[in-house]
Amino acid sequence: MRLANVYHCLADPTRLRILNLLLDGPLCVCHVEAVLAEPQANISKHLRCLRANGFVECSKAGNWRIYALPLSPTPIIEAGLRTLRDCAAVDAECRADSRKLRKMRRCITGRAPLCHAKPESRRKAA
């Protein structure tokens, strides 16, 4: 892994916001879309870059792709995430994203615990 690639990943505001959200735990792509209010194509592009450089891992749960921070990050990735955690704690945008995610997590139903695409429609169907 090249150090320049790590800093390239961390140099994008959207990727920093995604990583900040993942500090709180694994998320479906639709969680990230909803919090950041970005189109799925943009989020997927950023997640591809993060995954290619070792910042995130991906798994499938049913129809959903779940992204998480790596279980065994390299020392460089671990240092970058540690710095992000410290900086995000004082950044207004990151703190607002985290509040929005916490509020969203409270609304997630037991029927689809990893996905929060449209909670209102799930409640009506239940």
Describe this structure in words.
This protein is mainly alpha-helical. The protein has a single domain, classed as Arc Repressor Mutant, subunit A, CATH 1.10.10. 60% of the residues lie in helices and 10% in strands. It has seven helices and three strands; from the N terminus they run ααβααββααα. It has a three-stranded antiparallel sheet with strand order 1-3-2. It starts with a helix and ends with a helix.
Give the percentage of residues in beta strands. 5-15%
Strand order of the largest sheet: 1-3-2
Number of helices: 7
- Alpha-beta classification: mainly alpha
Overall mean pLDDT stands at: 85
Using the coordinates above, name the CATH class.
Mainly Alpha
- Categorize the overall geometry: globular
Q: Low-confidence runs (pLDDT<50, min 5 residues)? A: 116-126
Rg to the nearest angstrom? Answer: 15 Å
Helix content estimate? 55-70%
List keywords for this structure.
3-stranded antiparallel beta sheet, 3 strands, mainly alpha, Arc Repressor Mutant, subunit A, 7 helices, 60% helix, disordered C terminus
Summary, kept brief:
The chain is mostly helical and 126 residues long. It has helices at residues 3-10, 13-22, 29-36, 40-52, 75-88, 92-107, 119-125; strands spanning 27-28, 57-61, 64-68.
Q: Which helices and strands appear, and what pairs or packs with what?
A:
Elements (H helix, E strand, L loop, with lengths): L2 H8 L2 H10 L4 E2 H8 L3 H13 L4 E5 L2 E5 L6 H14 L3 H16 L11 H7 L1
Antiparallel strand pairs: 1-3, 2-3
